Predict the structure of Helix-turn-helix domain-containing protein.
Amino acid sequence: MSEIQNGTEKRPLECRTYTVNDIAVILGVSQARAYSLVREDLFKSVRIGNAIRISKRSFDHCLESLDL
């Protein structure tokens, strides 16, 4: 895990996004299905070059609102 230095204090840098592979693993679905879910705009995502990053807050809220 990366660290960020604030003055003299070092603390772990918390990642605030998931990758498509992360959500595939979390949901237990294929990468193709995870990409499909991103295209359905169920949660906030952003494309940075070729990479897609999904907001953890948005994804987690979507997951909690599902009736499983």
In short: The radius of gyration is 14 Å. The chain has a mean pLDDT of 86. The chain is about 40% helix and 30% strand. Residues 56-65 form the longest helix (10 residues).
